[in-house]
Amino acid sequence: MIREMRKEDLARIEELEKELFTDDPWPQSAFLYELDGNPYAFLYVYEEDGKICGYYDLWITFEQAQLANIGVARAFQGKGIGRQMLEDCVNRAVQAECENITLEVRVSNERAKDLYEKNGFINAAKRRNYYANGEDALLMIKPLGGL
Q1: Do residues 108 and 145 make contact, with C-beta atoms less than 8 angstroms apart?
Q2: CA angle, 90 as apex, 88 and 96 as ends, to 5°?
Q3: Positive or negative: CA dihedral 93, 115, 83, 33
């Protein structure tokens, strides 16, 4: 089940960030800012049997949407949770009448790139030294049509 993220979820989200993004996880304070201070951020969790096993942060800025962060606990990967969250994210951007949705992904993250490509995202550019460890990112975009 996908539901809105709440403050009481942040400890679990921070655990998942540290598990998934060992070299540069978002701290709990970043998610708190997204929840309380960023009027363009929409945060959701994927919950199964009362346990959060995935989350995402979607920014909707007028006619543009950006998937700022997404993660699925390693123990739950390969079960379609990432796909479900990505579809939910895209549907929310479509409902907001966004023209497109963008995201950045590590060039080495083949599994994520494959998921995004299977869901209509195309490579638009490379962002050099994007991540804290110096790794490049691919900017991917999915046209949505907007109005």
Answers
A1: no
A2: 105
A3: negative
Q: Would the CA dihedral through 87, 50, 7, 79 be positive or negative?
A: negative
pLDDT interval class at 87 (50, 70, 90): very high
Helix, strand, coil share of the chain (percent; to 5):
35, 35, 30
CA 54 – CA 47 distance, rounded (Å) = 7
Q: Dig out the tokens for 96 from the structure.
A: 């907001």
Q: How confident is the model at residue 72 (pLDDT cuts 50, 70, 90)?
A: very high
| Crossing angle of the two packed helices 28-36 and 10-20, in degrees rounded to 10 | 130
Query: For 79, which DSSP code?
Result: S
